[in-house]
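I am going through a labmate's work and have reached the protein record below. What it holds is a sequence and that sequence's fold in token form. Please read both lines and tell me whether the tokens look consistent with the sequence. Do not assume that whoever made the record got everything right. Thanks in advance; the entry in question is below.
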Amino acid sequence: MEFNLKEGMTSAKEMQVTENDLASKMGSGVLDVFATPAMITLMEETSRSCVDLHLPCGYTTVGIELNVKHLKSTPLGMKVRCEAVLTKIDRKALTFKVEVWDESEKVGEGMHSRYIVNSDKFMEKTSNKKNL
């Protein structure tokens, strides 16, 4: 199946750090700062949104690999912005460069890989695991 994707496609998402996004709330640390798991979620959401609208009905992407650095801390209430660039397409495997900035500086960067799947087939295979 052909997918209407091109290397260089971009997407951006912005959010404000809430209490639910803090390391102390998520359990990834004890400080009241933007949690690494929250940053990773933002990176995945931004990468997914870069391509999902360009896929045929019934298809989506799933995250398969992350290699990220959380460079600087961000306090509660500050805005963060993620940008994703589709850097490589290998059939159904997609690679993204992701970067995150708060209102002061770059706070995260890395690479994220996603894989194109048929949603129904993917969920059927997943549900069949219960029958093993």
Q: What stands out?
A: The first helix runs from residue 23 to 26. The CA atoms of residues 94 and 114 lie 5 Å apart.
